Amino acid sequence: MTAPRGGDELAAALAAVLGARTVTGLQRITAGASRETWAFDADDRALVLRRDPPGLPQPEGMRREAECFRAAAAVGIPVPALVAAGDGSDAVGTPYLVLARLEGETLPTRLLREDRFAAARAGLARELGRVLARIHAIDPGKVPSLDRVDDRLARLRAEHDAFGEPRPAVEAGLRWLADHPPVATAPAVVHGDFRHGNLLVGEDGLRGVLDWELAHVGDPREDLGWMCARVWRFGAAPEVGGFGSREDLFAGYDEVAGAAPDPAAVHWWEVFACVHWAVICRMQAQRHLSGAEPSVELAVLGRRAVEAEHDALLLLGLVEPGTTLPDEPCPSDSVAPHPVRPPTDRPTVDELLAAVEGFLVDELEPADDRSRYLARVARTSLAVVRRELALGPGLQRDHAAALARTGCHDDAELAAGLRSGTLRLDDEAVAAAVRSGTLGRLAVANPRYPITRPRR
Predict the structure, then answer these.
(1) How many of the other CB atoms lie within 10 Å of CB of 140?
(2) What residues have CB less than 8 Å from 348, skipping those under 6 apart?
(3) How far apart are alpha carbons 372 and 392 in whole angstroms?
(4) Which of 41, 120, 244, 370 is positioned for an S-S bond with 240, CB 3.0–4.6 A?
């Protein structure tokens, strides 16, 4: 069955599967790059639809997520009530969940900055620790379709290898992870994506744990390391989501589980989280690059992989907080055009980019929140192009020189040497080459990123 694309057709499909007289207010919201999320009202109920993009059905994954919502609700974990679920063989046309719509906020910029959430922020890290302990206590038998992942590192390496692209910083992270395995612990239900965006927060604290699509059975400390990853701090200093401390997170966990997590094991999983997020960014970009799901949002995510690579190097002590490239003391989105250009017509490439940026910022008036969000993403993509045109040739020359000092001709040789162990990170020339490539790509993708100084 063909999935309805939206508007009246989707509203009619939802009315059919819910047995509702009317479906009104249907609006796609910004949340979620992997699945579509729609808010709507069915008769007198405020609901949310989560569905796979048309053409990319994953019925097994949606079934697992439905099981997780039911199991979590049964043990008192705050989740939205599951109203309906389907494999796409009905009128909705693609696998989906329909959930009760809870009031609250998921946007990290609002949660971290607005005064109305100050009280919630104060106790949130401890509260999340308690909730994670309850998640990890769920009987895996209640979610029988969950994958059991016994060697998470091997799976991550295979996901990275599938792209056949050398990324020395990823190899550096994988090498460290392989050399420093944590002491094993009993497997448990793992949420898999416990962080900002998947947590619904009100002024009184946590109201709902969302988006269980990456849940599996594995090491429960994975969730703790993921929550501590720098990417989820959104520029704020506190180590847990930009709002709390590891000590509070672990204390909350201890309250319910009866034992605090091992900080060294959580650190391992935090390094893992950095490498994992880098790979996820590349996987998301592939959905766009393959033509299966054209999306400026997914395309830009591909360039964000280097942020996670930087964070991995930071945790491994290979870069310092606030590190930027030499001769780049004040990174900015505004860079001068490259001084050498082949003959061209006017407007030049830089002038065309400026014109489109001006349209997106000053002239475009998107009709809804998601369109406004995507306009900002599009502007970000143009800024990346502009910086690559201006900085790319010089960065490539500098990186080639760093590679030469290791005896490598390119990143493929550097990555292969790190994988095999013939090149080691305690060799300063090797570490410098890994830094050079990572910081160079970061200067193009997001030069403001390294300025944030996390509290140690």
Answers:
(1) 14
(2) 337, 341
(3) 29
(4) 244
